[in-house]
Amino acid sequence: MGFIDNVSALFEKKFSKQICRDEDSERLVFFEKFKELGLPTIKNEDWKYTNLAFLNEINFQLSSCTKAIDTGLVEKYLSFLNGNDKIVVPYINNSIDESFVKPLSSFDYKILRNGSFFANTKLISKFSNFFDSSNPFNFLTLAFSTDSAYLNVNNGFENEIPIILFYLYDFEINTLSNTLSFVEVEEDAKINIIAIFINRSRDKVFANEIINFHLKRNSNVEVNILQFNIDNLVLIDNFNFILESGATLKINTFSLNNYFVRNNLNVLFNEPYGTAFLNGIYFTADDEFVDNHTLVLHNQPNCISDENFRGILDGTGRAVFNGKIYVARDAQKTNAYQSNKNLLLSNDARINTRPQLEIYADDVRCTHGATAGYLDQEMLFYIVSRGISKEKAKSLLLNSFVSENLEKVEQPDLRNFVKELVAKKLNLEDIFFCSAIDELTNASL
Amino acid sequence: MEILKIENLKVAIDGKLIIKGLNLTINSGEVHAIMGPNGTGKSTLAYVLAGKPGYEVVEGEITFLGKNILELEPEERAKEGLFLAFQYPVEIPGVTNANFMKTAVNEVRKYRNLEPLDAFDFLQTLKERAALVGLDSSYLNRNVNEGFSGGEKKRNEIFQLAMLEPILAVLDETDSGLDIDALKIVANGVNSLRKPDRSFLVITHYQRLLNYLTPDFVHVMYDGKIVISGGKELAYELEAKGYDWLKNGNNGLK
Q: Which of A177, A390, B75, B179 is the most buried (most CB within 10 A)?
């Protein structure tokens, strides 16, 4: 039937009957725009190495499923926080379960139910600042959007308690998920966000989630994006960030065991003196695909961006890195760095990497680079010469390859968790986690 | 007891013959030194013993404890009790010395049917052996060789030697790049590890290491072969006369 026809029928069925409502006419505008742009093909530069034709083969339906999820399940997935305090915003099967949100005094939130986003003109106008109108999926998300979350972090809020954007998919049919989120971080506030994507569905879920952040002056935001064991999930996430003067942003993505993931990370320096770090780790094995698509817009002077993505590709795994740094004419004294390194473990693995710089200012310091290679044989020999098996030596080196980015996570529970996930993936738990040696050495030094 | 026996060894790299018929026998507890000018195949010998890929044994045999080690993988050779202290130790970011050694020691112990060391004993041993070569225990939590100075890297090699307790230790130019103080520390470390059931093969360009580490035998290697062997006094003679002495055709005919 084709993806466009498929979603057209779904749109018709769900919204067209009640077109008298304002929101539905808004939806229609967005949907028409989506249809006009169509499903991107590999002729589209932004999707050159990311073939979406497989979407045409899946028959998506609408789900009315509002499965109740018990707290225990959420706790289970968040057990890495060791029972420490957290604020959870659960996006469960397309809707936000408010009963989980534990309010704090310095933290406001608003859940905009089914389409009421469209009635909120203030939010709409804020939202439009972020909007990438070249990405058809943004229109698709808007057209089908269900619940939206608006979080506001008050001035000077500084809390170690992480805010969890918890995306859980547990459907029984091939279906779509589309939510919008808006996080406004007021001046001088410091927050830690963990966005975690979990799929329990056996059928295919096509999730298009938009998460927008507005970092006001001197705010400090760490966003960790966790994607692991998400078989059957076709995920296109759009994380958009606007930074005001003095704001600091740290993004860490961890894409481990995925079916299809496209991370769109867009950073806009709207005022001078902002800083953004974008770090990522991705592993792909047989039939897995991860695409990191980053755009850093230096529209203002004296901003710093530093990007570091590392990938390990095995079997028939594939990955794409497309990173673009744009430096506007007036954005003097820009410092922008970008690096993408890849290790290929098999002859069938593939990486397409495109680091791009587009610079119109003349007083800037920008570097970019990409590598794809195999394990360092000198290092490998050094390790095996100590009696360590070749398999384990390889694992140690792979761990070493990503360790720098693992250490960048500031939230300690999460840092240990991702280190453990990677160690497990590389069969190194016995080295890093099953012995007291680290604690002993730490304690005795 | 015979530990290592090399017979008529010929080794090529990329088709070019580097070692051209080398014979050497090392018995239990002996310290052998191999000296010689640059480019005569000393380090090649060290790598071939340890099993580095890319070195083609064209002819000859190497027996270690009665086994043909050319049929063993590098990790198996290490587990059998062969240790190579590298001339250029490799940096491994993201792996601490403590974890590296714990992994290596336990793999070797497993091979020898020994129980893994418990964490407390292991830590005691770690600290003790690190102190042997003057490495502060904070080194244990640092990544393997990462950001180490030349001297620290060499000391770390001897520390690993101490941890792995080999039967035969090959030291490849362990003295190169060391100042006199570091050289003493390294040599003292090695001396304290000498045992009746542990042999050493010390490869060096200069005689100075041998001032501290008295060898039982000195062999001079030139153009892929051992051209002359003798006691420790050979090292002094060589130092006095220089390697030109060999090149002028007097080799082996003293």
A: A177
Please state whether beta strands A95-96 and A87-92 pair in parallel, antiparallel, or not at all (unpaired): antiparallel
| Residue carrying the six token digits 């710089």 | A357
| ipTM of predicted assembly, 2 dp | 0.95
Taking contacts as CB-CB distances below 8 angstroms, the residues of chain B near A393 are 75
Q: What single DSSP character describes residue B207?
A: S
Q: Is the dihedral of CA A127, A133, A134, A136 positive or negative?
A: positive
| B138/A445 touch (CB, cutoff 8 Å), yes or no | yes
Of A382, A432, A440, the CB nearest to B119: A440
Shortest CA gap B212–chain A (Å): 26
The pLDDT tens digits for B136-190 are 888 888 999 999 999 999 999 999 999 999 999 999 999 888 888 888 988 998 9
- Mutation target vs A (from B90, B141, B145; most A CBs, 10 A cutoff): B90
Nearest by CB to residue B137, choosing from A388, A400, A445, is A445
Token pair listed for A288: 């897995």
* Among B79, B90, B98, beta carbon nearest to A441: B98
- Strands B2-13 and B16-27 turn out to be antiparallel
The whole-angstrom separation of Cα A350 and Cα B58 is 37
Cα separation, A400 vs A299, in Å, equals: 36
Q: A230 - beta bridge partners?
A: A258
B2-250 adopts what CATH topology?
A: Rossmann fold (3.40.50)
Cα three-residue angle A190-A191-A194, rounded to 5 degrees: 160
Q: Looking at this protein, which amino acid is placed at residue B135?
A: L
Would you list the domain boundaries of chain B? 2-250
Reading phi first (left if > 0) and then psi (alpha if -120 to 50, else beta), residue B249 is in left
- pLDDT tens profile A31-42: 999 999 999 999
pLDDT of B116: 86
Judge: A390–B86 Cβ closer than 8 Å, yes or no. no
Q: Tens of pLDDT along A211-267? A: 999 999 999 999 999 998 788 999 999 999 999 999 999 999 999 989 999 999 999
Please indicate whether, in this complex, the C-beta atoms of A379 and B107 are within 8 angstroms of each other. no
Distances (CA, A) of A243 to A130, A160, A247, A249, B141: 11, 21, 6, 8, 38
Residue A183 near residue A211 (C-beta atoms within 8 A): yes
**DSSP category for residue B136:** -
B77, B80, B99, best to mutate vs chain A, most A CBs in 10 Å: B99
Q: Do A437 and B90 touch (CB under 8 A)?
A: no
Give A 379-438 residues with CB within 8 A of chain B: 379, 381-390, 392-393, 396-397, 399-404, 431-432, 435-438
The residues, any chain, with a CB within 8 Å of residue A134's CB and separated by 6 or more, are A37, A46
